[in-house]
Amino acid sequence: MFGLAKILKYKKGNLAERQAELLNSTTISLQFSPDSLFSSPTIPSSSKEKELKTIEDWLDSPICAYVGAYWWYWRKERNWVLGDTSTGYIAVSAPQEKRKHGTMRDVS
Question: What is the residue range of 21's domain?
Fold first, then answer.
């Protein structure tokens, strides 16, 4: 969806690993967020668990909003649904080469 070469793992690992991923992730998130809505938090060099949780939540909000809007607009044209309603499922962006390439559609 974002054309990234790797998965952002800012919620996985020990404190130092998460902090390093957050530094990388906030830069990517800001590329997709209007400046008027989001300002980058400062990630201190010696963050505590609670401070990182606050920053993780800040990063989650624009990503979740974008993913929701992407699903709403493209549905199965550019997304995969993995799983089922009885055991659980997740919608993920299909790799670019696997997408059904359509033109922008009227959603009104």
Answer: 15-98
Residue with tokens 């969806």: 1
Q: Which two tokens stand for residue 10?
A: 């800012």
* Residue numbers of the chain with a pLDDT score lower than 70: 1-6, 24-47, 101-108
**Number of domains forming the structure of the chain:** 1
Bridge pairing between strands 88-93 and 79-84 = antiparallel
Closest CA to 66 of 37, 41, 39, 100: 37
> What predicted TM-score, i.e. pTM, was given to this entire model?
0.59
Does residue 105 lie in a domain region? Answer: no
State the CB neighbour count (10 A cutoff) for residue 26: 20
